[in-house]
Amino acid sequence: MENNNKSKIGQRFHGKVAIITASTQGIGFGIAQRLGLEGASLVISSRKQKNVDEAAEKLRAQGIEVLAIVCHVSNPQQRKNLIDKTVQRYGKIDVLVSNAATNPTVDNLLQTPDSVLDKQWEINVKASILLLKDAAPHLQKGSSVVIISSIAGFNPPAAMAMYGVTKTALFGLTKALASEMAPNTRVNCVAPGFVPTHFASFLTNNDDTRKELEEKTMLKRLGTTEDMAAATAFLASDDASYITGETLVVAGGMPSRL
Ligand code: NAP
To answer: 128: domain range?
Structure first.
């Protein structure tokens, strides 16, 4: 999204504070950029200091207010630090986007080592719960949580089976948290289709696989980080003030559910 888009989009997040995990590239960065261009003060984070610094520079160059913090989402001290530093700087939290995930294996479920099953559960599901536990006392009335799941959660493909299962779990987690955190905080979920990021490059860099994925969509193209950011911003904003516990599939019409 270019600099001059700031004047073309709304300012739904003016005066709001938004934390986005895993936000130094790809979908997380796209979401951060969109919320920032719409007026949010941002807290971006990922595992590596260099990535955090570079992403913050890019956002500041667009006139966006950014606090940049290293946070590996499965590290309890780093999660606590993320929330503490946010509250020290901005005094509150209005939006939290839980975006981090790992997909370290192409093994079948029954071949996946115990430690890898644990790691996927830890990062893809449990870390969202624990981060929200730290954030909850600071979430404002009217605040919003968006969890990033995946189209793979509806029908976990063999080559990413446990990843898909953790993404299925996020649909349930969204419902459970929405009920628990109502009425002050809404909790929704975005299920992206395939987006050519670093994460998906093992699929999208192969021309044949990429074409196959494009053909699976009704719109005959892969998704963009901007597509995911627009949907996330909608759910996070007051435009979605009567929506909670829902999953929005952003996958160009790929098969998901009725
Ligand atoms: P990406 O472009 O590869 O970016 C991943 C980001 O996450 C980077 O900023 C990385 O920075 C950070 N990160 C990785 N592990 C982390 C951890 N444990 N704690 C904190 N930060 C971490 O990935 P992406 O495609 O945007 O994926 C983002 C989300 O979208 C994931 O939840 C993924 O499951 C979901 N999704 C993606 C697709 C797709 O096709 N791309 C489809 C469906 C769903 P560092 O290396 O500095 O940590």
So the answer is: 5-250
Each residue's pLDDT tens digit, 130-167:
999 999 999 999 999 999 999 999 999 999 999 999 99
Helices of type H across the chain = 26-37, 49-60, 76-90, 114-121, 127-135, 161-181, 201-204, 207-216, 225-236
pTM, two decimal places: 0.97
Q: State the CATH number of the domain containing residue 242.
A: 3.40.50.720
User: Does the residue 71 lie in any domain?
Assistant: yes
163 included as an active-site residue: yes
- As a residue count, the chain comes to 258
Inside any domain, residue 157:
yes
Total domains in the fold of the chain: 1
CA of 178 from ligand 1 middle (Å) equals 23
**Of 163, 171, 194, 234, which one is the catalytic site residue?**
163
Q: Which residue has a Cα nearest atom 33 of ligand 1? A: 101
